[in-house]
Design a protein that fits this description.
106 residues; alpha+beta; Alpha-Beta Plaits; four-stranded antiparallel beta sheet; 31% helix; 40% strand; elongated
Length: 106
């Protein structure tokens, strides 16, 4: 079974998150996308503490697709420094893992 990662991306709007999700799914880089929000994010930007509403996009994808997904997000995302992080999944239901592998291309 392909090792899967869970990718978390914060987005400034639902539209941006949906655009990234659609592009990743259409390219078969990710098997599934989930969108949450809005959430309140606090962060330091250019020396000032900022607070904004953002949407969280979760992608489930083969680890081998990380570089392609990172590049795709960088092309679409409007932030100068988008938060794109990935976590390896140590335990995945066998049926779900097989489905995810069948629905992506590495």
């Amino acid at each position: 079974m392909t090792s899967l990662i869970l990718i978390r991306i914060t987005c400034p709007s639902r539209r941006v998150a949906e655009d990234i999700a659609d592009a990743a799914l259409e390219a078969r880089l990710a098997a599934c996308a989930n969108l949450e929000g809005p959430v309140t994010s606090s962060y330091r930007w250019k020396g000032v503490i900022e607070q904004s509403f953002e949407f969280i996009l979760w992608l489930k994808a083969p680890a081998a697709n990380w570089d392609k997904i990172d590049a795709l997000v960088q092309r679409i995302h409007p932030y100068d420094v988008p938060a794109i992080i990935a976590m390896p999944l140590s335990h995945v239901n066998a049926a779900y893992g097989a489905w995810a592998t069948e629905n992506t291309e590495s």
